[in-house]
Amino acid sequence: MGISIKDSDSFAKELVSKILETGFYGMSKTDFYDYVLFLMNKYSENQFLKTNSNFENARLLKLSEQKVKNLKLNINLKFACDEPEIVIADFFSKLTEKNFHKTDEKYEFVLDDSYTRMCIESVLKKNGNTLDYKINTEKVQIDAENLKNFLSSYAEGLNNQLQTKELKDEVLKIGVNILDKACPVPNVVSSIVNIGKIILKNT
Fold first, then answer.
1. Taking a C-beta distance cutoff of 8 angstroms, is the pair 150, 129 a contact?
2. pLDDT score at 4
3. Alpha-carbon Rg for the chain in angstroms
């Protein structure tokens, strides 16, 4: 297990540019290390921070899993700055039957990325809801009604990015399809992928 940089020239240029922008010793040691790791992930072959598990990255970086989680959160907040809509779409598009399923009236899935959790919770809290952490902090649940509210708020939040009524209607239709076909899981995944495609077309 290692890290392969696919474009070392761009990596070096961006790092030097950041140093010149902030000035030597202009960044704290923590911020500097975080930024280097951000660039390593950005220019790596496989985007290891996203594709590897926290345990795999802990072994790779020789850090504790908690430090890996904190690093990922800091990088997302300070440097990556991905839009919450993109983060949510990316997360749900990668759900599989192994980590998303229905138990009684609740949907259960694994959520071990702090920034993704913040993005999802920010949408849920608009309706006074939150994820259910009764199992543990990484295996969460959401009931059907809260899922419906989440999708409605999520679609509403896209209004600034979706420029035509046709696209807005498509998002709402996808939300209905998710609720109608939440089981089996593949239909959920394909619907969320469509949301991701719509977002990317309008950013």
1. yes
2. 84
3. 19
